[in-house]
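Form 7-S
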Amino acid sequence: MTTTADPTALLDPWGAATAGTASQLLESAADSEQVAWEFVLTTLERWGCRALAPRVLPVTAELVANAFAHAVEADGAGAYPCPVVLCLLRSGSDVVCAVFDPAETLPRRTAARGLRRVDTVADAWGWTAPGPDGKAVWAAFSGPEAGRRSAAAVMATLDPLLVQIEVFTGSAIPQLVLADPSWGVEGPPEPAPLGD
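Output:
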């Protein structure tokens, strides 16, 4: 699959005035971890959400590493003009980290160990039903004053992520799939839309 989207034009679909979204293009696996960490720390600091860094950083590292290892390298990075995009979205003190890659492959059993770590740290996480230009794996974090919230409560605040999904994956009907912590035993479930 090849994409026709211009990733640099899509990184800020709402314009600089939108303070609740930030995106970073990650062009190669070699420097992706360092670039991602700097981007996350800078963005959380700007948003006044630095207290979430110990939770967001390891999850970001896992999602970015998985995107390059299981999605981009499988097809060859040269096949896509935009290998991986890291997005952060903020609503109040809550933050969502989403890593977009150009492949249709969903989180797999082989990555279950790292994804179990994601499940432990994030309030909720999952992926999107793949669109013409790929998919995203996302994780949501509640601010310190809110404490850990249920997956249903987190899902109710993810409307901005639906817009990002449409922009980066080309999905006409963006769908979020909530990960079930037990899927590592049997493999991932079939995608099922949540919400509307």
